Amino acid sequence: MTLRPTRRGFMLGTAGAAAAALLAACGSDDDGSAGTSAATTATGPQGSGFPITVRDRYGTTTVERMPERVVVYGYNDHDTVLALGVVPLGLIKWIPEWKRGVGPWSLDALGDARPVLFEGQEVPFERIAALRPDLIIAVGQNLRASDHDRLRQIAPIVSTPGGYPAWGLPPTEQALQIGTALGMRAETERLVRGLEDLYARTRADNPTFAGRTVMVVTPVEDGQMSIFSDTDARGRLIANLGFRQPAAVADVVGDEFYAYLSPEKFDLLDVDALLVLAYNRASADALDKMATYKQLDVVRRGGAVVVDDMDTAMALAAGTVTSIPYALGRVVPQLRAALAKA
Question: Among 24, 97, 142, 274, which has the highest number of CB atoms less than 10 A from its own CB?
Answer without folding.
Answer: 274
